[in-house]
Amino acid sequence: MKVLLLRFSSIGDIVLTTPVIRTIKTQVDNAEVHFATKASYKTLLESNPYIDKAHYLKDSLTGLVEELKKEKFDFIVDLHNNLRTRIIKLRLGVKSSSFDKLNFEKWLMVNFKINKLPNVHIVERYLAAAAPLGVKNDSLGLDYFIPEKDQVPIEWLPGEMRNGYVAYAIGAQHYTKKLPVERMIELCDKIGRPVVLLGGKEDFENGEKVLEFFQKNPGKKTVIYNSCGKFNLNQSASIVKQAQYVFTHDTGLMHIAAALKKEIFTIWGNTIPAFGMYPYRTRFVSLENNHLSCRPCSKIGYSKCPRGHFKCMYDNPFDFYLP
What we know:
Number of helices: 11
Number of strands: 11
CATH class of the largest domain: Alpha Beta
Structural class: alpha/beta
Number of domains: 2
Shape: globular
Strand order of the largest sheet: 8-7-6-9-10-11
CATH superfamily of the largest domain: Glycogen Phosphorylase B
CATH topology of the largest domain: Rossmann fold
Helix content: 25-40%
Distance between the termini: 49 Å
């Protein structure tokens, strides 16, 4: 059976689909698994042994549809369920199923704080979309495969990191999903051990501000290495894999850390774990301010706090202990 999976974004969401990929490949007789996503997420698929062929959306949806038509799929599992994927399903004209996005339930929670959200992780909802194929949850969690060429030797890190370190992913797609710099500093100070800061080039400046604080205060136990923008995604995953603990905002590296079975401390701002996208099948602690009437204010995020006070991050209690 030839099966097409659809999920166009983003890093975390695609990592969260990996149990569906694996269970179809291992539980459906003679399954040939194809996956379609944006070209910018190729890194997430190319090392996955359960994917037989990947298809990438580049400039034209029509071009992708024509490519997919040639494959003559038997079934489509839509793990995105948006206008683009509906067009693809319509034009391919084969049997399909779609995952439930719970848009109405999320709308109620964001706008009226009425909680009708099921106590179900999004992975379970992704797997429910594949249920017509007869697959069941194998309880193996998420997958993330780091190619050998991107394994980061510990010798690449400063000497202070080589006897153990904490990884802290300081980035996030939206401002309201990440700590202000002064609170990043406070968090790193409480961690009190070597910390590798992870993020993209856009996070480098914030990483430098954190680094500068500890350089000016050498009596602190925390030592900082700002690796933001210095490593690609797979290399960052390699650093996460070797960390003792992982601190992260609600972002893609959180789910990569879960796939690597790390113990995770998740920092929540405008979003909430109840949306169903907390770390899956790994130990984790949620660091969040649960005493706000305005939270959650969005299922995604904003460029600034809508109320102007940003108490979800400024008043996050950082209630954790590292042994």
